[in-house]
Write a structure and sequence with these properties.
One of its GO terms (molecular function) is ATP hydrolysis activity. The protein is α/β, with parallel strands linked by helices. It has one domain: Rossmann fold, CATH 3.40.50.300. Helix content is 31%, strand content 24%. It contains eleven helices and twelve strands. The chain has an eight-stranded mixed sheet with strand order 6-7-8-3-9-10-12-11, sandwiched between helices. A four-stranded antiparallel sheet has the order 2-1-4-5. A hairpin with a 2-residue loop joins strand 9 and strand 10. The longest helix has 18 residues. It binds adenosine-5'-diphosphate and magnesium ion (MG). Magnesium ion (MG) binds next to helix 1.
Length: 323
């Protein structure tokens, strides 16, 4: 058994842009452009970045809910990219996803029992009585009650619906959960309850999380390590503690500048971003961050910086990280 549960190598997802009179392909959106990372067993890897930087595409490509354009994904030692559709279906028992908007992902015409039972039916698991028992168990595990099984999604609050989304992801006893902004749609007061639940579940069930958020303050507490994405690439990846105390990439510094610090005396370079995120259909040359970087040099405009380990597993893609 390897230490890494998930190994992602050079993952790319390009969406074709069609148009013109003949409706042919006139370009590509580089939604994910050469992303590599690993997630260790029992670990939470946070993935952060502004809207549109490719977080969801990365998460979904891992499960092949979207077919990647290139790259390899190894899950539990198996090359997921090479599996047939049927083999992939079986593999998904072990890799599940929790979506941002639980309401959109729960069938409004089905009661909770039916919604939670469905993954078991799809995978041909258990008798009807066993499945219903499992539904009851899981409702309790996520902090709901057995009588909730008879109710419908619209009868729940946002926080409760996300608990149902989590219960559904857990029905098959998975190893990995890709949580795609699971608390972004919730009131701040409810966010911490759901985050606490996810941490308890991780501890009790030995889960591994890829936890996606657009907000560094959300991933900070739940993540062991954090990867920062910009325009389809990971620009920095290191332990949570390192990322917050010693960020090396100017984009990470800019994101951190936007997060209120509990300690106002904390010495931290403030980086205010100029301009907008460029289009992933036409990303800048060299370092894709160069159009917004306060430290830009000629090299940054022409040469893509390597994503390299600069010590103790602190990865950064920047020509100027030392300065
Ligand atoms: N099905 C699609 N077709 C074309 N472009 C897409 C599609 N899905 C996402 N994109 C584009 O890919 C980029 C990354 O999207 P996404 O992964 O959803 O980002 P994030 O989750 O970080 O907000 C965006 O520019 C988005 O517009
Ligand atoms: Mg998203």
């Amino acid at each position: 058994m390897t230490e890494e549960l998930l190994v992602v190598k050079n993952l790319k997802k390009y969406y074709p842009i069609t148009g013109g009179v003949l409706g042919g392909e006139i370009g590509v959106v580089k939604a994910v452009d050469d992303v590599s990372f690993t997630v260790k067993r029992g670990e939470t890897l946070g993935l952060v970045g502004e809207s549109g930087c490719g977080k969801s595409t990365t998460g979904r490509s891992l499960l092949r809910l979207i077919e990647p354009t290139a790259g390899e994904v190894y899950f539990d030692g198996v090359n997921v990219s090479a599996l047939s559709i049927e083999e992939m279906r079986k593999m998904r028992r072990d890799m599940q996803i929790v979506f941002q908007d639980p309401f959109a992902s729960l069938n409004p015409r089905h009661n909770i029992e039916k919604i939670l039972e469905e993954p078991l039916i799809v995978h041909g698991m258990g008798s009807s009585a066993e499945r219903k028992k499992r539904v009851q168990e899981m409702l309790e595990v996520v902090g709901l009650s057995s009588y909730h099984a008879r109710r419908y999604p619209h009868q729940f609050s946002g926080g409760q619906r996300q608990r149902i989304g989590i219960a559904r992801a857990l029905m098959l006893n998975p190893k990995l959960i890709v949580a795609d902004e699971p608390v972004s749609a919730l009131d701040v007061s409810i966010q911490s309850q759901v985050l606490n639940l996810m941490q308890d579940l991780q501890r009790d069930l030995g889960l591994t999380y890829l936890f996606i958020a657009h907000d560094l303050s959300v991933v900070r507490h739940i993540s062991d390590r954090v990867g920062v994405m910009y325009l389809g690439r990971i620009v920095e990846l290191t332990s949570s503690a390192q990322l917050y105390s010693n960020p090396l990439h100017p984009y990470t510094k800019a994101l951190l500048s936007a997060v209120p610090t509990p300690d106002p005396d904390a010495a931290r370079e403030r980086v205010i971003l100029q301009g907008d995120v460029p289009s992933p259909a036409n990303p800048p040359s060299g370092c894709t961050f160069h159009t917004r970087c306060p430290h830009v040099t000629d090299e940054c405009r022409t040469t893509r910086p390597l994503f390299q380990d600069v010590g103790d597993g602190h990865f950064v893609a920047c020509h100027l990280y030392k300065s």
